[in-house]
Amino acid sequence: MTYTKILGTGSYLPKRIVTNDELSERMETTDEWIRARTGIEQRHMAAPNESSVDMAEQAARRAMESAGVTGEELDLIICATSTPEHLFPSNATQLQARLGCRTIPAFDMQAVCSGFVYALSTADKFIKCGGYQRILVLGAELFTNALNWEDRTTAILFGDGAGAVVVGPSEEPGIYGSVLHSDGGYKELLWAPQGPGSSAEDYPNRGRFIEMQGRDVFKVAVRSLSSLVGELLEHCDFDAADIDYLVPHQANLRIISATAEHLNLPMEKVIVTVNKHANTSAASVPLALDHGVRSGQIQRGHNLLLEAFGGGFTWGGCILTY
Ligand code: COA
């Protein structure tokens, strides 16, 4: 049987760190409130001359180096992002040129914070269908550009960054399976109303910034992720006791703890980066994965459960042996 295996990981965070205290100078909030409600202590913010493609390129180069794969060897690039540098061309095609690839297929995928698990699941299907040997999968976001800095209920939550993996086929276990969901009925709980394709009459007084009903999002996220992990274990025929690490989407420490509790996993078995990175949307899971690998927590042979929840709503996850 052919599995899709993660051959290498990489990530990139912009240099500039913005602490909660710095935010409290710009808006009515406190470090204490943000930490208690979210677990966030700081976030990274892209430099004025840095785009989501620039960050993605750095993460990609690190993942390719750790996988021992050159640009010429890649067969496909999938970049999960809701903050592409341009409306078009995609981030992925820019990476194709920058990384010295052949004229391989390259496309962006938009599932907001679940983007990376959607992209990894897609790459898994390309590998299993045959013909694709090396796929670069990324999550890259410049969310601080999409924030209304007058709105303390959203501005405190997000940060910038990129994460990447290179995957390829293997006879040894890799991805066992994935489960993906969406429910567009919730769109107005977490959205950026105006897009380039909005009708001329729609949302005339609203901007391109994120709007959120935080308390409602919180409830649906906890409920959906609790049900997702059970569904994933069943789908992959896995026992929760055999999961070595949960690598969750990093939106809120309370949501992460609730999911871990549902799996009966102690927090030592959860990769947590939300305190340092805040919510980097599609970049959050690959950033956490790379952090877990480079810190030595995640080792070859460990069983990982990756999950995410985001705007749409979208949610999903997968179980794999690293
Ligand atoms: N600083 C200080 N006070 C704030 C604040 C801030 N940054 N943001 C909101 N408040 C205030 C509110 O105005 C409200 O005041 P009031 O009681 O006088 O009306 C109070 O804090 C409680 O607000 P509420 O929104 O009910 O807080 P909460 O406990 O739900 O926490 C979130 C807010 C956003 C942290 C929480 O709902 C959350 O994390 N939701 C999920 C968001 C998320 O993860 N989204 C991405 C999913 S991918």
Q: What helical percentage do the residues reach?
A: 25-40%
Shape: globular
Q: C-alpha Rg, in Å? A: 18 Å
Strand content: 15-25%
Tally of domains: 2
CATH class group of the largest domain: Alpha Beta
Low-confidence stretches: none
- Strand arrangement in the largest pleated sheet: 1-7-6-4-5
What is the N-to-C order of secondary-structure elements (H for helix, E for strand)?
EEHHEHEHEHEHEEEEHEHHHEE
Write down how many β-strands occur, each being a DSSP E stretch of 2 or more residues: 13
Q: What is the residue-averaged pLDDT? A: 97
Ligand roster: coenzyme A
CATH topology of the largest domain: Peroxisomal Thiolase, Chain A, domain 1
Give an overview in words:
This protein is α/β, with parallel strands linked by helices and 322 residues long. The protein folds into two domains: 169 residues, Thiolase/Chalcone synthase (Peroxisomal Thiolase, Chain A, domain 1, 3-Layer(aba) Sandwich), CATH 3.40.47.10; 146 residues, 3-Layer(aba) Sandwich (Peroxisomal Thiolase, Chain A, domain 1). The chain has ten helices and 13 strands. Strands 1-7-6-4-5 form a five-stranded mixed sheet, sandwiched between helices. Strands 8-13-12-11 form a four-stranded mixed sheet, sandwiched between helices. Strands 2-3 form a two-stranded antiparallel sheet. Strand 12 and strand 13 form a beta hairpin. Helix 3 crosses helix 4 and helix 7 packs parallel to helix 8. The longest helix has 22 residues. The protein is globular and about 55 Å long. The model has no long low-confidence stretch (mean pLDDT 97). The site of coenzyme A (COA) has 19 residues, from helix 2, helix 6, helix 7 and strand 12.
